[in-house]
Amino acid sequence: MAEESLREGPGEDVPGAGTAGGAGADGEGSGSAAEGADGDLRRLLGRLGGFGLLLLAGWLLLTAVQVGLPYVRPGARIIVETKREWIRSAPLFPSDARVRVAVFGDSRILSGFRPELFDDLGGPGFSSFNLALPDSERYLDELTALCERGEVPTHVLLTVAWPVDPERGFDVFHPLPDDMETIERLVPFRDLPRNLTLFFLRSLSRGGPRAYYRAGEAIIESMLADRGWYFIEDQSHYPGHRLPEDFELESDTPDRIRERRLDTDAPAFRRLRALVEEYGFEAIYVPVFFRQGAYAPAAGSNAESTAVLASTDGIGIVGPDYWLLPNRLFSDPVHVNPEGAEVYTRRLWELLEPVLGDGRETAR
Fold first, then answer.
1. Helix axis angle, 209-225 to 75-89, nearest 10°
2. Averaged pLDDT, 260-280
3. In angstroms, rounded to a whole number, what is the distance separating the alpha carbons of residues 163 and 26?
4. Which residues lie below 8 Å from residue 124, measured CB to CB, with a gap of 6+?
5. Hey, which of 72, 73, 100, 276 would disulfide with 93, CB 3.0 to 4.6 Å?
6. How far, in Å, CA of 255 to CA of 11, rounded?
7. Which three-class secondary structure string do you get for the chain?
8. What average pLDDT is seen over the chain?
9. Dist CA 76 CA 195 (whole Å)
10. Chain-centre distance of CA 243, in angstroms?
11. What is the end-to-end Cα distance of the chain in Å, rounded?
């Protein structure tokens, strides 16, 4: 009996044996599921990483094309970005210049103010630079950058009123101070496909891609040689770059005076005043120019603007808000031809000589 009992012993159920075996099977199943989930996560992360590397490679490639082919951009854009680069890094004034004049404005002043002639009229110790930007009436960022790197002018000539944008605090829907500037920094090549297409199409009537690209390089070479002045020849379509004497536009308002209004409560004005106080230059509002017939003649001086600035040290105004020039001095409805630029620059010097002339000995 004992022997039989011993033989049958191994075949008897052992309490807990079945449970342990079941638990082992379940553990293997759970482990396989966990390993499968980990594998899926690794594959997902790997795909995301590969996609991210592909995006980075594309970003680097397009940025390299954008940087490597700067002259496929429109001419105005080339001028803006080149001048901003000069402002950030290039020496604009000789170290021995006693009078350093920086001139700001839009494309009108880009075509109208000739620094080389202005400096000749001023004589030894005078140096000016045309920092006007096409399609832009803003200048405070450029002026700030110029001063912060030590290229402080003694005089800053202004032709447009400062921006009157309201001072904006934090906005959850617009957390960035300048959406377009942020987009341009993150995606500098966003206009590259369009620019390449337009460049190729335009080059077909301008001697081909190589010649047209060289023309873009020539824009910068010419502008640098002329200290920021540039004749906007592409928009000139009349013989001799002169508008006909009877030229007019439906938008002309020859009976209306165009007044330049200066708002001293604007945040931009406070910023300009802070720059004047910190760096010690003199900011002067000077006349701009329009075609005869575009507006009525301006008064000899803007009494309202003069009164507004009377109590502000370092910021002044001279002359009328604008001058009217004959059509023959314009190459298109907005911009002057080289002859018009000479006329405007000479008139500006005659107006400013009593102010800038004293700077020959006193400018620092």
1. 40
2. 91
3. 73
4. none
5. 100
6. 119
7. CHHHHHHHHHHCCCCCHHHHHHHHHHHHHHHHHHHHHHHHHHHHHHHHHHHHHHHHHHHHHHHHHHHHCHHHCCHHHHHHHHHHHHHHHCCCCCCCCCEEEEECCCHHHHHHCCHHHHHHHHCCCEEEEECCCCCCCCCHHHHHHHHHCCCCCCEEEECCCCCCCCCCCCECCECCCCHHHHHHHHCCCCCHHHHHHHHHHHHCCCCCHHHHHHHHHHHHHHHHHCCCCCCCHHHCCCHHHCCCCCCCCCCCECCCCCCCCCCCCCHHHHHHHHHHHHHCCEEEECCEEEEECCECCCCCCCHHHHHHHCCCCCEEECCCCEEEECHHHECCCCCECHHHHHHHHHHHHHHHHHHHCCHHHHCC
8. 83
9. 12
10. 30
11. 124
| Helix orientation angle between 192-203 and 209-225, rounded to the nearest 10 degrees | 100
- In this structure, are residues 142 and 131 in contact, taking their beta carbons and an 8 Å threshold? yes
- Cα(83)–Cα(37) distance, rounded to whole angstroms? 56
Contacts of 152 (CB under 8 A, 6+ apart): 100, 146, 279, 280, 281
Q: Are 317 and 309 in contact (CB under 8 A)?
A: yes
Structure tokens given for 54: 């592909």
Cα Rg for the chain, rounded, in angstroms?
Answer: 34
pLDDT category of residue 7 using cuts at 50, 70 and 90: very low
Contacts of 358 (CB under 8 A, 6+ apart): none
Tokens found for residue 246: 């009877």
Amino acid of residue 199 = F
CA 92 to chain centre: 18
Q: Does residue 63 contact residue 189 with C-beta atoms inside 8 Å? A: yes
Q: What is the pLDDT of residues 14-69, one digit of tens each?
A: 444 444 445 555 555 566 666 777 777 888 888 888 888 888 888 787 777 767 67
